[in-house]
Design a protein that fits this description.
The protein has 860 residues and is mainly β. It has ten helices and 44 strands. The strands form nine sheets. The protein has a 22-stranded antiparallel barrel. A hairpin with a 6-residue loop joins β4 and β5. α7 crosses α9. It starts with a strand and ends with a strand. Keywords: Cell outer membrane, Ion transport, Iron, Iron transport, Membrane, Receptor, Signal, TonB box, Transmembrane, Transmembrane beta strand, Transport.
Length: 860
């Protein structure tokens, strides 16, 4: 079939330029019909019944003939299901999971069980998000409400041969409507429970004969569904807006220029944290007059301050398309800035123990250029280049609260069994080393850090199709990526206890000040060294019990003489595929593809030198530390230990076989796959910090099945399911031990999305009543593989969400509707984590409660 845009013809062929795998479809026939009608009216494309046009292959092709594992959600489905951002998209796309954690900007996109990137701006997501072809490098830049969306395509599996940056697990591609040459638009207002006010609108029209414009905006405000009990304030609210303008210019019949500028802002208090297990430290929280939530799904929480999360996200892009018959050229140039500010209580109790501030900024420039052919002969190609230049900066700090000293005093008494313990005693014993009375855990700065990272990357990618005879298409694709990161981290630790090594301090005191540094200790006779070390690490050292309270020791600045603060990666990825059209209604294919994601950097205070660069001594002693490059260079700081500065690249591999059918009243898509990521970048909270390292190998075998059934003209059923058999083939150095052979936590075995849509037509009036019910399910699964502090556990999650809507759509463009999300008020745990500096306590995030409301919409 040939798809022709207004003044811009692009002929497409069956099974053109693709990535990998199967086709997913969860779009009601009513949505298809409306999109087809709108497209025909607007001149966007020519549609047949049950034909959906996608750009997953960087070309306009029909969903049926595009051999990529892509699930499509139409703009109408987004409206009917009240899906306002990508967080809600997972309810209609079973292969996609989106998790939101402690604030509005900490989210992770997961496809087929693979995904990362939350909580650390040094880690780019394995799932790439593109909005109108522009890469959004951090999840915080793609979370705002989506206005004027034409469709969202979720591409499963590695897509490196089509996308230039970080697509090792998949891609979320959001496509918005272009400006139109006929004046029109829409306005929508919705009101719901929790005092939810949602308004959005758009307008489009011509500017002369060869130019058009569009403007759209949205505003979303809602009271929080949670309560900070002790402060009497809401939490988990909504307060965000977005605005965007577009200009379309077509100076000639074969040249099109589309410019977009947008600005969005989030200013919210997020998120509700509850306690699943109140460990032995809970008594100390109550002992200092604090409290913590123990009724997990009450949405009541206790904090000593209202959390603040502000996100400013803005930028612009220019896309130029030139069509010269058999050759078309596309250029997309974009610049974006993201500012993220967080100020929150991170002990998640009403006691004033510790709070954190993060002030982050990301500046990104991207340039994509590609050439595609549309020859009548048996060979066609796509060739592209992508350039990425990004700067990341972060200033952050931890502050010790007024209750901190008393809180940790109570913990120390419980740990030592000494009811008379005070830090004044410790300070008196360490006074010769300069420790002042009332200084340990005193209210004030605990840490202050500065991080920065510059990332330059470029890639060349392409595909070639060869059609030796009608029906069979052989495809080869490649991607070469070169990625460079330069990073710098510096930090200060202000707590005097953390600045003293208890072994070295004992040796200094025991030697009456004769040994104050490593050189003096190493100069002693071996027998004297051994004797002092045995005393310092034995029961005679009264300071040994203090090591659990040295939470934030001094930080070794990078780059330094040993660590250069650089990563340098390059990789060849490729695709091999055979696709065969048995008939116009039935297609099959087999593909093998690889993918790549470059190294990620641990931009946090938990960045540590690799073992080998530094080898700590007993109980982190610097005096007794063996020779290592950092020690020999005189760089070692007090209480330095090892960990990771960065995680190496991810390398993906997938085998896939698929079958797609499109028959009158029934469409289906089946894909079976075996996908592996070597070096998966694992990032896990350990109770006081975050650990970044590579899993040896994680793999998943499974299948995806999607179908749409239209038994009668106005009734549409959809069913989509994903089955995942996931395993850590090798992960020997996880924060919770050797996980090799275990199923990764948080990946459900079964995920199901299904819907029923019925459209009742009132005669020939053009008025319609559209009723929709959808259901999404995730099978019961362990949330994690254990927690570093709490240890093994049986915290599980099962999801059963029912959403519904009913809309009266009048022929004059007026629509009146009602909707509900999580209609049956299903409760489940989003995730869990070790209580911050509270060993034995487990905290977590509860799912959102039922929301409902009414909507008025007018389209003109």
């Amino acid at each position: 079939m040939k798809i022709t845009s207004r003044n811009f013809g692009v002929a497409t062929r069956a099974t053109l330029f693709a990535g990998v795998a199967a086709i997913g479809l969860a779009m009601p026939a009513s949505a298809m019909a409306q999109d087809a009608d709108e497209a025909a009216e607007e001149g966007d494309a020519e549609f047949d019944d049950n034909i959906i046009v996608v750009t997953a292959s960087k070309r306009e092709t029909t969903l049926q003939e595009t051999p990529i594992s892509v699930s499509v959600t139409s703009g109408e489905t987004l409206e009917r299901a009240q899906i306002r951002d990508v967080l809600d998209l997972q309810t209609v796309t079973p292969s996609l999971r989106v998790s939101q954690l402690q604030n509005s900007s900490s989210s992770t996109f997961i496809i087929r069980g693979f995904g990362n990137g939350d909580n650390n701006f040094g880690i780019e997501p394995s799932v790439g998000v593109f909005i109108d072809g522009v890469f959004r490098s951090r999840s915080a830049s793609s979370l705002n409400d989506l206005a004027n969306v034409q469709r969202i395509e979720v591409l499963n599996g590695p897509q490196s041969t089509l996308f230039g940056k970080n697509a090792s697990a998949g891609v979320i591609s959001v496509i918005t409507r272009e400006p139109q040459y006929e004046f029109g638009g829409s306005i929508e207002a919705s009101y719901g429970n929790y005092n939810n006010i949602f308004v959005k609108g758009d307008v489009t029209g011509p500017i002369g004969e060869s130019a058009a414009f569009s403007l759209d905006a949205s505003y979303n405000k809602r009271d929080g569904y949670g309560t900070i009990v002790n402060l009497g304030e809401d939490i988990s609210n909504r307060d965000r807006w977005t605005a965007r303008g577009q200009l379309l210019v077509e100076p000639t019949s074969n040249l099109k220029i589309r410019a977009i500028a947008d600005y969005s802002q989030i200013d919210e208090n997020c998120c509700v944290v509850s306690t699943l297990v109140a460990g032995p430290t809970a008594a100390a929280v109550f002992g200092v007059g604090g409290a913590l939530s123990t009724d997990f799904f009450s949405y009541d929480t206790f904090l000593n301050q209202v959390p603040v999360n502000k996100v400013d996200n803005y930028g612009g892009s220019v896309q130029v398309d030139w069509d010269n018959g058999p050759i078309s050229v596309t250029s997309i140039t974009a610049y974006r800035e993201l500012k993220n500010f967080v100020d929150q209580d991170v002990d998640f109790t009403s006691a004033d123990i510790v709070s954190e501030v993060r002030d982050q900024q990301v500046e990104t420039f991207t340039q994509e250029f590609r050439i595609a052919s549309d020859f009548d002969g048996p060979i066609n190609f796509l060739l592209g280049g992508f350039y990425f230049d990004e700067g990341v900066a972060q200033e952050s700090a931890l502050t010790t609260g007024t209750a901190s000293r008393n809180f940790f005093t109570l913990l120390a008494r419980a740990a030592t069994g000494d009811p008379t313990f005070t830090f004044n005693q410790v300070e008196a014993g360490l006074a010769p080393l300069g420790v002042q009375q009332n200084s340990i855990f005193a209210a004030g700065p605990l840490t202050r850090e500065s991080y920065s990272m510059d990332n330059q990357a470029w890639s060349i990618f392409g595909t070639v199709d060869f059609e030796p005879f009608d029906g069979l298409t052989l495809t080869g694709g490649f991607n070469y990526t070169d990625d460079k990161k330069d990073f710098a981290l510096a930090g200060q630790a202000f707590d005097p206890l953390a600045n003293i090594n208890v072994v070295d301090a004992f040796i200094t005191l025991a030697s009456a000040g004769a040994v104050t540094n490593r050189a003096q200790f190493q100069a002693l006779p071996a027998a004297n060294q051994a004797a002092l070390l045995n005393l310092a690490t034995g029961p005679g050292n009264p300071f040994l019990g203090l090591t659990p309270f040295q939470f934030q020791p001094p930080f070794l600045t990078i780059p330094n003489a040993v660590e250069d603060g650089k990563t340098r990666d390059d990789d060849w990825s490729y695709l091999l595929r055979a696709a065969y059209e048995f008939s116009p209604n039935l297609n099959a294919y087999f593909s093998y593809a690889t993918g790549f994601k470059a190294s990620s950097v641990n931009l946090s205070r938990d960045s540590r030198p690799a073992f080998g660069d530094f080898i700590p001594g007993p109980v982190r002693s610097t005096f007794a530390a063996p020779s290592s490059p950092i020690t020999d260079a005189g760089l070692a700081v007090t209480n330095l230990t090892t960990g990771s500065r960065f995680a190496g690249p991810e390398e993906a591999e997938v085998y896939e076989i698929g079958l797609k059918g499109n028959f009158p009243g029934v469409t289906f898509n089946l894909a079976l796959f075996d996908q592996t990521i070597k070096g998966f970048q694992s990032f896990l909270f350990t109770g006081t910090g975050f650990q970044l390292n590579n899993a040896g190998q994680q793999s998943v075998t499974g299948f995806e099945f999607n179908s749409t059934i239209t038994p009668v003209r106005n009734l549409v059923f959809t069913f989509a399911t994903t089955y995942l058999d996931a395993v850590y083939d090798s992960f020997t150095e996880s924060p919770v031990g050797d996980l090799s052979g275990q199923r990764p936590g948080g990946i459900p075995e079964w995920a199901i999305s299904t819907s029923a849509t019925y459209t009742h037509e009132f005669g020939a009036s053009g008025n319609r009543l559209i009723s929709r019910v959808d259901y999404s399910h995730e099978s019961n699964t362990a949330i994690n593989n254990g927690l570093p502090t709490f240890g093994p556990n049986n915290f599980n999650r099962e999801v059963n969400l029912v959403n519904a809507s009913m809309t009266l759509a009048l022929d004059n463009g007026l629509e009146i509707g009602a909707w509900a999300r999580n209609l049956l008020n299903n409760d489940y745990i989003l995730t869990v984590f070790d209580g911050v500096a509270q060993a034995g306590t487990v905290s977590g995030y509860p799912s959102a409660p039922r929301t409902y409301g009414g909507t008025i919409r007018f389209k003109f």
